[in-house]
User: Fold these one by one.
Assistant:
Number 1:
Amino acid sequence: MDNLNGSLNPWMIPLTLGGAALAGFVTGKMFGDRRRGAKTILKLVTNDFKKEGPLAGSWIDYQPIPFQRFAYKTTAYRGGLRRQEDDQLVNY
């Protein structure tokens, strides 16, 4: 209680920033690189399409391929869906 004049401890800001940086680093390591398998991705996409109507078929390659869009590089799965729309089979 010696610090009654309202000034901050000189260590308060660096310790707060360091703690926030450490928490962000740990959170990034825990949740940052969550890759999903091909089967999980196909299930998520087919469930979303089934909300709009029945599917005639779906497929996915289980081997990921390199994918680049501008400067962003990642891996992706190739796949497709087929369903009936206006008496025609449409591929996605």
Number 2:
Amino acid sequence: MAPSFARSISFPLSPSRSSSSSNTNNNNSKHQSRPSSIMASSSSGGGGGHARSVSLPCRSHPILAHLHMHIRAVRGWAQDPTSVSSGLAHVDALHAALGELLDLPEAQAALAGAASSDRLLDSFLRLADAHGSFQEAVVELKQDVADALAAIRRHDAARLASSLRAQRKAGKELARLATAAREGARPSRLGFLGGGGTSSAAEVEVVGLLAESAAATASASAALFNIVAAMSASASAEVCSCKRTAALVCLLNLNKKASSSSSSSSDEQKETTSMALMERLEELQECIQELDTGSDKVFRSLVQTRVALLNVHTHIVFHF
């Protein structure tokens, strides 16, 4: 009896590559029962179990390489976050690729015996919850900025003070979400272990990709939440040019100066300062609008990923 071989990734080749390899397979028909994507490095071992290779097998399914590319892109953005919209786009693209992976029957079969399915479901649920809370905070922040703009236009100091307090509260909530997301990005927190004695190589590969995707998403989420928290804090504490001085105090001082100086010069100064404040807040408002749209897409993609994983898990439960 020939030893049994655990599959690394037994996903079928793409149609073009499958057709190009058909001639070779005809000459080796007695070996067709072995998956075409078994790693060459695994075939020389004497044991039945094979360790997971660090690199993808050269003939593995193209979706896997596509998914690894998106994981690297998300991790790269999290390490050097620049544009908020680009970070959201990277996370959205990653979860679109995850959806393609979970649609494959081979991936679903690999998850059939996965002991970590519940932990995966919990991890993606936490991410979806975090982004749901993030959306709520962004909506509130958007309203706070609108209130601050209205207060400046009307020279309403009390309303401006209230909106700035609300902004600081939103910033604290965003900082809390960032801390929670950062905790979720730690491998020890995810707790996924592949390659155990009862785990097939295909299971290790698929579960590993899902775990890496969850960790990358958590890292990017922490970076994203931190950026918006810092943006909110900056807008509330330094909305005017007076260093370490609340905008309310500056506005009140400006009104006092207006009563003691000439009418024309004070009006010009007041208008100039008000225009500068409004410009700063309007820029923030535009950024939040862009963020609001992108965060909604990411939230929906996270929910779709978890639903796809839950469908696989439910199918497994009903068939065992």
